[in-house]
Design a protein that fits this description.
Blueprint lengths: L13 H25 L4 H12 L6 H4 L8 H11 L6 H18 L2 H20 L5 H13 L14 H4 L4 H21 L4 H6 L1 H11 L1
Helix pairs in contact: 1-4, 1-5, 1-9, 1-11, 2-9, 5-9, 6-7, 7-9
């Protein structure tokens, strides 16, 4: 998966971009739930989120998620359930909507936004030295989340297997994915996404999801 060569142009409409960004949020929510319950995640979905978090200055919108909507397939499936009012995992939905809430709090805190940006710049250097998914990079992403987003009174309480959640590198992996969710939530807002649109523009979002296949 190469971020530098997008292989699939996204439909160039604000709603399609909002749908893809929101899929990133729900993909993060889904992977947090899976990690907490099983200790495992699907590698393509995981790598897409981590690389997107590290790429703070992408050359195109598509480059953010690696050039193909299938890299966000997990999140698109959750979003389809939300938009279609179908049965969706309530824990995943809670994580997803909590990420949107935390994103709004972050947007209102200029100092924290600046601190997070500085940290990500340093972590990019780490990723170039090791690789994007190396545990040193994941540990740094997790620490960045813990020392910024986690300081808000509103927090995401992750449910799962207690022994798994306390295992080596698990807290860091969970926090790194939550940070990726924040990254996509910010992207969603930048593309014009708003909570009320999930209620009043379901038809437009559903059409965008159909186009994405």
């Amino acid at each position: 998966m190469t971020a530098s060569t997008p292989i699939h142009r996204a439909p160039d409409t604000p709603t399609a971009r909002q749908a893809l960004a929101l899929a990133g949020v729900f993909q993060a929510a889904s992977l947090v739930d899976e990690l907490a319950r099983t200790g495992q995640v699907e590698s393509r979905a995981w790598e897409t989120l981590i690389r997107a978090t590290l790429d703070t200055n992408p050359e195109s919108f598509e480059a953010i998620y690696g050039g193909h909507p299938n890299n966000l397939r997990r999140g698109l499936e959750v979003l389809e359930a939300v938009i279609g009012r179908k049965q969706a995992n309530p824990v995943v939905l809670r994580y997803g909507f909590s990420l949107l809430l935390l994103m709004n709090k972050l947007r209102g805190n200029d100092a924290m936004m600046s601190e997070l940006g500085s940290r990500l710049t340093r972590i990019q250097g780490q990723a170039e030295h090791f690789e994007a998914t190396h545990e040193n990079v994941i540990a740094s992403l997790g620490e960045a989340y813990q020392e910024t987003i986690s300081t808000f009174k509103t927090r995401i309480v992750v449910q799962g297997d207690p022994s798994l959640l306390q295992s080596r590198m698990m807290p860091e992996r969970v926090r790194a994915i939550l940070l990726a969710g924040i990254r996509f939530a910010l992207l969603w807002h930048q593309q014009g996404g708003r909570r009320w649109k999930l209620v009043f523009q379901r038809g437009a979002l559903r059409k965008a999801l159909d186009q994405l296949g």
